Each structure stands twice: as C-alpha cells, then as structure tokens.
Amino acid sequence: xxxxxxxxxxxxxLAGLAGHAAAEDYPARTVKIVVxxxxxxxxxxxxxxxxxxxxxxxxxSFVIEDRPGAGSVIGTGEVxxxxxxxxxxxxxxxTHTTNExxxxxxxxxxxRDFVPVAPVNYSDxxxxxxxSVPAKDLKEFIALLKAKPGDLNYASSGPGTxxxxxxxxxxxMSGTNIVHVPHRGSGDARTAVMGGHVQMMIDAITTTAPTVxxxxxxxxxxxxxxxxxxxxxVPTIAExxxxxxxxxxxxGLMAPAGTPQPVVAKLNAEVNKILERADVKEAWAKQxxxxxxxxxxEFDKYLRADIEKWAKVVHTAGIKVQ
Length: 322
Fold this sequence. Notes:
The chain is α/β, with parallel strands linked by helices and 322 residues long. It is built from 13 helices and 10 strands. It is globular and about 75 Å long.
C-alpha cells in the first residue's frame, strides 16, 4: 500500500472513531426539531409526541420549533443551513417529496442537502365541507362543482402539501374546477373551512375527525383504499364517486447532510423503539395513524420512490403553484 493510501485509510479510521464517539455522547445538549408547518397540524402534533419520548429515553431536552411558510420551504431552508451535528432535525412530510418537482427553484434539494433519519407514520385524509354547502354526499358535491365551475374554493396549508396535492388530484380525476386557496398552516386552513370562508378542504383524519364528529364540518369521503376505522360510516372517495382515487399524508425525520452516520443510526434506533411500542400503535390507531418503521437506508429508498411518484402526478395532471 502506498503512503498516500495508508494516510487515507488512517484518516478514514479516525473519522469513523470520532463519529462513534460523537454518537456515544449524543445528545449532550438540547436538540431542536424544526416543524416547517403551522401549529396544531399532524407534523406539529407528532413532533411534540416524539420529542417528549426521545427526551425521556435519551435524557436530554428536545424542543419543537414551528417555522411555517411557503409550503414548508422557509423552515426547511433554515434546517438545510444548520450545522450537521444532530442537534437540528427536520420533521418533514410528503410535502417535501412533492416540492422537489413542484418547486424546482427552492434554495435546497431534499436528497442533496439532507440525510434520512426515520419515517414516523402515515394516515388517510378526509374531504370535508362547511355545513352550508348544499351537497350531502360526494356525488352531489361533484355535480355542484360542475354546475358552478370556478365558483367554489378549497383550502390547503400551502403549495405541495398533501392537502394541496389531494385537492389537485381530486380535480383532475373528477373533471371539476375548484379554486385552490393556500394558507400559512393547516390550522388556518381548517379554521377557514369551519368558519365558512372556504367551502372545502382535504385534511388529515388525525386532526379533523373531531370536527366531523362535532358537526362543525360535513365529511364527504376519506382518501384511503378502505374506510377508516376512526369514521367507518364515511365512504372512501373512490367508492363515493371517484374510482381509483387515493391520497395519504406521511411524516418523517431528516437531518442536515453531513450529520455523522452513527448519530443518525442512534436516532433511527430510538425512534423505531418508540414506534414499535404496543401502546403507541394502539393510541395512534385510534387517531387513524399507522407507524412507519424503517432503517435510514430503507427510508432513503422510500423518499426517492415518492419523489418519482409525485413527479409523474405533477406532470400528468399539469399541477402548478398559483
């Protein structure tokens, strides 16, 4: 072996030892999880849950910072510029994989500027309308949209979010014209629909089921392949009038590119321990959420496949940011 090769091997060995040492000591101070969405939405709720559980298992503070805006771009961009040391993490969703195609000029690239840590969970969405909308079911709503093209609106938490993409997918598959009204966060969008300022929203069932059960909004359909156990009397959109329709929301954790692999592995292991607990699975099932358990490598493949999937949807449906 040449002297240069020996030097390279020695440096690689030292770097590996340093990484393992960093993982053993990690976390030695407060860890911040940035949620690039508004307070009260699924990302915020489950980030706070995970933060509390990680705080208990790793004996260090985990704080949640909501940084909404521009369909997740503002908060995500801040994390991309953070030190790659494991002390700033990103709670992300399929908003991010969609935006790789929908927003090509954003100041970061997901798979270049971040490393996958662990997925968290997935859940179905649900289409709801304000009670004043004169449609009792999905077929009546589609008929109303076709009778008044462009007169009604639907809310979302911003471009590329699952709520936006689910709305655009519904438009394309139902042949209707309903106007997208983006909001700063899902809480704002939800409030706009409950207040009757916007007629419709496709929202996460984990946060919207209580508003359906209280009568604040009317449910027209869920977005999964089968009915939700949370609201079993609500048909799927596919069975109610748009065959083949399906949409979900999923969440995950990423870290800035360059974060030591042993730190990523430690976080992944700790998150998976939480998701494998029977009490967590039971509690989330009642909310309509299912844990996603993967290694960092498996999550990497999942992300790349989702980017490709939504690129096809965006191009085929001609979806653009307004």
